[in-house]
Amino acid sequence: MNPSPGLSPGTPILLTGGAGFIGSHLAERLLGAGAHVTILDDLNGAYATHLKQENLRQVSEQGSFDFLQMDIANPEQLQSALSGKSYEVVIHLAARTGVRSSLTQPLLYGQVNLQGTLGLLELARRGMCRQFIFGSSSSVYGPRQRPDLAMHKFARAIDENRPVTLFGDGSSMRDYTYVDDIVDRIAAALALKVGFEVFHLGSGNPIPLKRMVHLLERALGKPALLRMQADQAADMPVTHADLGKAARVLGYAPKVPFEEGLARFTAWFRNTSRRTGLPETTEKRQKKTELSTKGH
Asked: Which domains, from first to last, does the chain contain?
């Protein structure tokens, strides 16, 4: 595990969204570097809650952490829990995710992603932390990837001999970035002594959708049953990160080629994801009793 420059043992860090895909990997990195980590997450049902709980369980194997379960879009909750607290760094990754869902639930996305972020920024302005790092992600992949993302959905469909739905002709391209490369540079940003800056992190090498499907077929040893549909209005034809500034300031150079990263993902999928099951349905979630959580 790579050390985090600028991070002293015991450094207090608040990490929002730490039960999620990227957040749980980052939490492990921070704990491995000796930080005192507080994870804030509402464990919402956007995808199966038991997957987020499993992420937290794996994080706990790296070390103990404090846990706050709350909705950042609730200003009263946020003030009550964090007012008067002091952290060296706040790393804000909590968000409602998925472009397509934002079209059908725009108010919810605005409340969480805008109002929630503003509430954290206001607490930071009042002195809650020295440094505030805010991330928004697209096309990050690797072990623990959310089950609603294309690579994970396609892998499960191929594995279960179900159709793989492709929107458009398969020529759309994504700048897929392996999760460890993202975590490396978030950790590196802890050492920055700058004002407001924006950095783009990615692979710098967009991959066509059909190429990704082909590599999944090869890794899983099964052909994909393709079902082609019209383009989705919310989908970008190409994403391609400009890495120039991140390379100059953060020393960013992605290390994991797509083929290697996908092989790591499919190995995790074979060993782990098959046992965790599909995301829970809304009906199943409603039948569950209220989740009880404790700090670690």
From this structure: 11-136 (3.40.50.720), 139-178+203-278 (3.90.25.10)
Count of other CB atoms within 10 angstroms of residue 229: 9
d(CA 145, CA 163): 20
Exposed (0-12), middle (13-18) or buried (19+): which is 207, by Cβ within 10 Å? middle
- 283: tokens are 């009906």
Residue 9 confidence (pLDDT)? 87
User: Could you write out the DSSP letters of every residue in 70-95?
Assistant: --TT-HHHHHHHHTT--EEEEEE---
Sorted by sequence, the CB contacts under 8 Å of residue 284 that are 6+ apart come out as none
Q: Are 38 and 32 in contact (CB under 8 A)?
A: no
CB 124 within 8 A of CB 90: yes
Q: Are 35 and 7 in contact (CB under 8 A)?
A: yes
Which among 71, 86, 67, 81 has a CA at the least distance from the CA of 24?
A: 67
pTM: 0.89
Query: For residue 3, what are the contacts with CB-CB under 8 A and spacing of at least 6?
Result: 33
Res. 54: pLDDT tops 80: yes
Q: Which residues pair with 15 in a beta bridge?
A: 39, 91
CA distances from 191 to 23, 48, 106, 208, 244 (A): 19, 35, 36, 35, 19
Most confident of 17-26, 270-279, 282-291: 17-26
Over the stretch 185-241, which tens digit does the pLDDT of each residue have?
Answer: 999 999 998 889 999 999 999 999 999 999 999 999 999 999 999 988 778 899 999
Closest CA to 147 of 294, 288, 287, 265: 265
Interior angle at CA 140, CA 139 and CA 141, nearest 5: 110
Q: What 8-state DSSP symbol labels residue 115? A: I
